[in-house]
Automatic annotation (TrEMBL):
The keyword Hydrolase does not apply. SUPFAM superfamilies: PR-1-like. Its main location: membrane. The chain crosses the membrane at residues 61-87, 107-127. It holds the Pfam family Colicin_V. GO terms for biological process: toxin biosynthetic process. This is Membrane protein. It is a multi-pass membrane protein. The keyword Transmembrane applies. Gene3D superfamilies: CAP (3.40.33.10). It comes from the Bacteria. Keywords: Membrane, Transmembrane, Transmembrane helix. Residues 201-315 form the SCP domain.
C-alpha cells in the first residue's frame, strides 16, 4: 500500500460520508444519475462544445473539455432535481430498516467511478513518470485501472486535444544561445526511425515546392541529431548549446564529419505534423529547411512517450 491507496481510500470515505443517512433509494438513484450523466456527456459533449466554440470563440480542444464538464454538470443537476421531484413522497414509504447501512453501497460505487476517471486520466496523459509508477504500484489503483482502461478512448477524445495544445510546439531560434528548462528529465525514450524518415520526406516536399533540390539523408548527421535530442531529454533542457557549451558544429566535428556549412533546427512537440508545421511557420527554421546551401540532412527523433517527441534536424553541405 502506498500514498495513492491512501488517497483513493480518502476519496471513498468522503463519498460514504456524503451518502450516509440518506435513504437507500435516493442514493441508488443518485448513482444511476451520476453514471448515466457521465455516459451521455461522453457521447454528446461535442454538441455543447460546438455551441461554446461558436459563442465564445474558444479553441476547439478547450471547448471540448469545457463542453464535457458543462454537459456532465447540467445532466447531473437535471437528474438530481428529477429524482427528488418524482420520489418526493417515497422518502418515508421506501425507508428501509437498515437504510444507513445500505446507502453505503451506491455511495462507494459513485466514488469508484470518480476515482476511475481520475486514474485513467493520470495513466493516459502526460504526468510525471514517478506518479504513474506510484499509481501502477498501488494495490487499489492498479486493480481499478485493470478494470477501467476502456474509459481511455472516450476520455482521450474529450481531453486529448487539450493535452496536445498544452504540450504544444516548442522551438528556439537557430544559432540562438537561449536555454529553456523542459521541467522534467527522462531516460525513458526510444529513437523513432519512422518519424525521422517521415520528417525528411516532409522537408524535401517543401523544397520541391519552391524548386530546390532534395536533401540527401545522411546517417552520420542523424546520429548527431539523435545524440542531442537524447541529451536534452536526459538533462531536461532545450537549447542549441549543451550544458558543456557545445553546439552543432562541435557535435559534428567530434564525429569526424566534414562540412563547410552546418545548421540545426530544434522542435519539441506532441506529434510529427505539429513539429513540421511549427518549424515551417518560423522564418529562421523555414530558412534552414529551404536553404540552397545545404545538400544533406539528418534528423534525430527521440520519442519520450507521454512527454512527446524531441526533434533535432541537422543540415550540411
Amino acid at each position: 500500500m502506498n500514498w495513492v491507496d491512501l488517497l483513493i481510500f480518502g476519496v471513498l470515505i468522503f463519498f460514504i460520508l456524503d451518502g450516509w443517512g440518506k435513504p437507500f433509494i435516493f442514493e441508488l438513484m443518485d448513482l444511476g444519475g451520476f453514471v448515466l450523466s457521465l455516459l451521455l456527456s461522453l457521447k454528446y459533449y461535442n454538441l455543447a462544445a460546438s455551441q461554446l466554440e461558436n459563442l465564445f470563440s474558444l479553441p476547439h480542444s478547450f471547448a471540448n473539455a469545457v463542453g464535457f464538464i458543462v454537459a456532465w454538470y447540467f445532466l447531473e443537476i437535471v437528474f438530481f432535481i428529477s429524482v427528488r421531484l418524482a420520489f418526493h413522497h417515497l422518502k418515508t414509504k421506501l425507508k428501509l430498516p437498515a437504510d444507513h447501512f445500505f446507502s453505503i453501497f451506491p455511495a462507494v460505487a459513485r466514488g469508484l467511478v470518480f476515482v476511475s476517471i481520475l486514474l485513467v486520466l493520470v495513466a493516459t496523459f502526460p504526468v510525471k513518470p514517478q506518479i504513474k509508477k506510484e499509481v501502477h504500484n498501488s494495490f487499489l489503483g492498479s486493480a481499478i485501472l485493470s478494470e477501467t482502461y476502456r474509459l481511455e478512448v472516450p476520455l482521450k477524445g474529450v481531453f486529448g486535444g487539450l493535452v496536445s495544445d498544452t504540450l504544444s510546439f516548442l522551438t528556439i531560434k537557430p544559432r540562438s544561445n537561449q536555454r529553456l528548462a523542459l521541467g522534467f528529465q527522462t531516460t525513458d525514450f526510444t529513437y523513432d526511425s519512422q518519424a525521422e524518415m517521415a520528417m525528411v520526406a516532409l522537408v524535401n516536399s517543401e523544397r520541391v515546392k519552391v524548386g530546390l533540390k532534395v536533401l540527401i539523408f545522411d546517417t552520420s548527421l542523424r546520429e548527431v541529431g539523435r545524440s542531442h535530442s537524447a541529451d536534452m531529454l536526459t538533462k531536461g533542457y532545450f537549447s542549441h548549446y549543451s550544458p558543456e557549451g557545445e553546439d552543432v558544429s562541435d557535435r559534428a566535428s567530434q564525429r569526424g564529419i566534414d562540412y563547410s556549412v552546418i545548421g540545426e533546427n530544434l522542435a519539441y512537440a506532441p506529434s510529427l505534423q505539429l513539429a513540421h508545421q511549427g518549424l515551417m511557420n518560423s522564418p529562421g527554421h523555414r530558412a534552414n529547411i529551404l536553404s540552397a546551401d545545404y545538400s544533406k540532412i539528418g534528423i534525430g527523433v527521440a520519442n519520450a512517450s507521454d512527454f512527446g517527441y524531441m526533434f533535432t534536424q541537422v543540415f550540411s553541405d
